[in-house]
Design goal:
Blueprint lengths: L1 H20 L12 E6 L41 H8 L21 E3 L21 H20 L3 H5 L2 E6 L2 H5 L13 H21 L4 E5 L8 H6 L8 H20 L8 E5 L1 H10 L8 E5 L23 E3 L7 H13 L6 E2 L3 H5 L3
Parallel strand pairs: 1-2, 1-3, 3-4, 4-5, 6-7
Antiparallel strand pairs: 5-8
The chain binds 2-acetamido-2-deoxy-beta-D-glucopyranose (4 copies).
Length: 363
């Protein structure tokens, strides 16, 4: 009895030392097997290429001019934030859901469902022709990918999915391509509309949780009023468009507080709110601090009021010193900054309440 006690004490004392001697995965990359990505053009990596009637496509030059595989449907000159997070986590690029070859073992590191011009609400983005709304994106995950993934890895989804990040970047178009265009007959206040939007998003996150999602990354809205296209559409104003920025700010405040308030409804979840609004606003007010020189003009020639680049149009020479590539989307240089901060910033004003590196290691 005494010996047993001594042995168990010895084992107990030694265990932490043994644990320390085991190889340490200090950057969390091995903890994450892949990513499921939902949202709008900021994270779309080619899904809209497969929509016949979509006018929100980026599958032509100068999009992708700095991307290793050229134009792909990504709405920027190089990598988007998702690609850069994959690099950080030592993961391959996440394939777009719309690509027919995204099946079998090609889905084991995740799938990207995002669609340019789409929103949280089903009627957002219809002006751009065809979009895949957030609800449809979730449905594609649930009805197509999930059964395939289970067949592929041979486990129950609960065990499999906790090793994946669920990244959601949606909501901007619900303002720019819906609320501010007065599309809805419902004449509602910004407060009401925003509360309805974040409530819808909360329901959507809970659905992903019920399906097995545990680790969530929520992207804030960017300063919509500072987009070059917003300025082009309101030429008389000085500086950024205040109503649009106010909307983004209000949405972000509610999204951030959702991180805490949704926890009791999703007890085993971990969430990170990435404040790209603040990161970009800082660049706009003080571009030279990070080596940028132009924070107001698009780098490419804009095609029209939708803010996309003109096909085969001109681009600026020093793309790494422009904040905006087209009228709406940041350059790769800005995406690098956002991904770096999302991954390992210790400032809660940038990644809240933890960063993605820490999220990767939570259980
Ligand atoms: C994380 O660690 C792995 C090995 O454990 C390494 O291959 C990878 O480059 C590291 N990633 C970063 C961003 O440090
Ligand atoms: C939407 O409605 C408001 C007030 O009713 C008006 O001021 C605004 O110009 C309208 N916007 C558009 C894009 O029609
Ligand atoms: C919307 O409601 C506001 C007040 O709630 C009112 O002033 C405005 O005229 C209404 N606009 C329309 C287009 O009905
Ligand atoms: C509120 O959200 C629901 C979806 O959750 C949507 O169907 C409805 O149109 C929204 N209402 C307004 C006024 O935007």
């Amino acid at each position: 009895m005494g010996t047993m006690k001594k042995i168990s004490k010895l084992v107990f004392l030694c265990f932490p030392i043994v644990a320390l001697l085991l190889p340490c995965n200090c950057n969390g990359s091995n903890e994450i097997k892949g990513m499921f990505v939902f949202g709008s053009s900021l994270v779309d990596n080619g899904n809209n290429n497969f929509l016949r009637n979509s006018r929100a496509k980026a599958n032509y030059l100068p999009y992708g001019i700095d991307f290793p595989y050229g134009p792909s449907g990504r709405f920027t000159n190089g990598k988007n934030v998702i690609d850069l997070l994959c690099d950080k986590l030592s993961l391959p690029f996440v394939p777009p859901f719309g690509d027919p070859s995204t099946k079998g073992n090609r889905i084991i590191h995740g799938v990207n469902y995002a669609s340019g011009a789409s929103g949280i609400l089903d009627d957002t983005g219809l002006l751009a022709g065809e979009v895949i709304s957030l609800n449809e994106q979730l449905k594609n995950f649930e009805e197509v990918t999930l059964p395939e993934l289970k067949a592929e890895v041979g486990k129950r989804s609960g065990e499999v999915l906790k090793k994946y990040l669920f990244v959601v970047g949606s909501g901007g178009n619900d303002y720019t391509l819906n609320y501010f265009l007065n599309l809805s007959d419902a004449n509602v206040s910004l407060q009401f509309f925003t509360a309805n939007l974040t409530k819808s998003l909360s329901t959507q996150l809970q659905k992903l949780y019920k399906l097995g999602g545990r680790k969530f990354v929520l992207m804030s809205l960017n300063p919509l009023g500072c987009y070059p296209v917003a300025k082009a559409n309101y030429p008389s104003q000085i500086g950024c468009n205040k109503p649009l920025n106010r909307a983004a700010h209000l949405f972000n405040a509610q999204l951030k507080s959702l991180v805490g308030s949704i926890k009791p409804l999703m007890p085993a979840s971990h969430l990170v709110y990435v404040n790209s609004y603040t990161i970009i606003t800082h660049l706009i007010t003080n571009p030279t601090s990070k080596g940028f020189k132009d924070a107001s003009n698009p780098c490419c020639e804009m095609a029209s009021i939708n803010g996309l680049c003109k096909k085969d149009g001109e681009t600026c020479e020093d793309r790494s010193r422009h904040v905006f590539f087209d009228g709406v989307h940041p350059t790769e240089a800005v995406n690098v900054l956002i991904a770096n901060k999302a991954f390992d910033s210790n400032l809660k004003t940038e990644a809240y309440p933890i960063n993605i590196k820490q999220l990767a290691m939570r259980y």
